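name: query_chain
kind: protein
chains: 1
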Amino acid sequence: MFHGKVSPEIAAGLKVLRKRIRDAQIPSSKLDESLNIATWNIREFGRKRRSQPAIHYIAEILGQFDVVSLVELRDDLSDLGRVMEILGPYWRVVYSDALKDDGGNRERIAFLYDKRAAVFTGFAAAANPPRTRTGTGEYLPTFNWWRQPYMASFSAGNFDFLLLAAHIQWGTSAGRVKELASLAEWIDLKRNERTKEDKDLIVLGDYNLETAAQIRALTSRGLALPSAFKGKAIGTNLARDKSYDQILHYPVYPETFSNRAGVLDFFTGGIAAMFPGMERDAFTYQMSDHLPLWMQLRTDIEGFELDQILREARKKNA
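structure:
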């Protein structure tokens, strides 16, 4: 990462931020053995030009991970480009098109990754819901979402995986339940396709979860929290009392999801050290009103595959 010759104010802010990052206890990843993934809703990133301190702080946070899903990235990618200049030449990004109506909020979803740790393997697409033919001969989608989920395939070590990120509507509770249930159904259809590639599917992003009914809707088709998150408070808003952001999976190889996971809290400790004199609401438009949620994957899965073969053989011979 190259912050360059920054002002004394930015240097002081970076020192404070690095202390907060250390407090998050994010373990180092190891090439071909582990991978740090994260999801972060950066509030309306690209709607209004960020200050230079914010660009440096956002880059510092993103650089703690190997692959990050970015939610609420706007149609203007100028600030993302400024962040990537600081991250350096090994970083790449794959992103969706912007949806330019009020429901879409001119948002994109992006996957930012360090190519030294993870390889983009060529598949990237918006979720394409099944269509049914109407009486007029038109083909219309079975499901509809405010913002289409976005997918991309990656490889790290001998672990191939597909990331699917989404930003669920901030609407009525009933509307959210319906959208979450249809997304869970679509994901289940996708993973059971006859021509699907043998990839582990990881679902992440901002699901705006607030009620038990919403959580049941999202997990109704088998998606599960990794064991590292079970029974733990994983609040990702600044107050740390709402689990809006999630990382979920189908436990094909549950051993790949390590017990190292958490939230990177860049807010606790106050605003003044990073942005002197700034009010909280303005801070959320410089940094965000969400905190990054992260976890570490084990990517050397050959042993897990061999164990699975043996388990299946025992079942057949039982």
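note: The radius of gyration is 20 Å.
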